[in-house]
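Section 3.1: Structural characterization of target chains.
Under the original work plan, the team committed to producing a structural model for every single-chain target entering the pipeline before any wet-lab resources were allocated. The record below documents one such target. The sequence was received from the expression subgroup and is listed exactly as submitted; it comprises 276 residues.
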Amino acid sequence: MQNYPALVGPYRCGKTEPLLWIAGPCVLESEQAALEIAEELRRVADLLSVQLIFKASFDKANRTSSDAYRGPGLKEGLRILAQVSKITGLPVTTDIHESSQAAAAGEVCEVLQIPAFLARQTDLLIAAARTGKAVNVKKAQFMASSDMQHVVKKLTDAGCENILLCERGTFFGYGRLVNDMRAIPEMQALGVPVVFDATHSVQEPGGLGGATGGNRAMVEPLAKAAMALGAEGLFCETHPEPDRSPSDGANMLPLGEIEGVMRRLLAIRDVSVNPT
């Protein structure tokens, strides 16, 4: 059995703890844009008493097209994230794609995120574990929830004491993901908290030809199901103008709608955690 609740920076992630909320834009665009989003998310998090971690990627290494915007890169991206954390007081996270990125990211981030396509990459998991930070691993789109036991073992064998597993949908045919919500309690049974990725779950890979599409109208319904099942964390990406975002805009929630969505989700979680 792993460390439960998991310690993520200043937070405790567990069933009876306040919701762990990982949120931010898909990819970093500029320091000003990141701060605008982070400050609004901080306002909502403080208002609703949730534990917020700001998330943004410095590099989208798995874009559909080679012409797509990838981000500012490791050095500049971590500088921006460090500034966001300094100015807002929020812990930050980002995804790493190569073992060589782990140590630098660990100096800035309280939790390192492993992308779904890389969930089985042993060297990457070990490098993340050795930073001493919490590690959030997205279940690969081609993996069964039971297979994540091997991911957990790799991390614990490498010394990671605080692990989060993230459900983000499974491939179903071409260009569509589906969620088997049984994955949430099944991965919780491994002794770790589970985060539900509501925005990537509605992706339609390659749905726009040279880019990934999605259906943001399904974000809230799926997130409600995850809250009802007792997920300890929620991952969602947001942007002031999602349709103008350089990455995953079709999946993201408009920043102006975040407060209302979170209020409705927390009402469901409260019933799930405190049944009468």
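The two ends are 29 Å apart (CA to CA).
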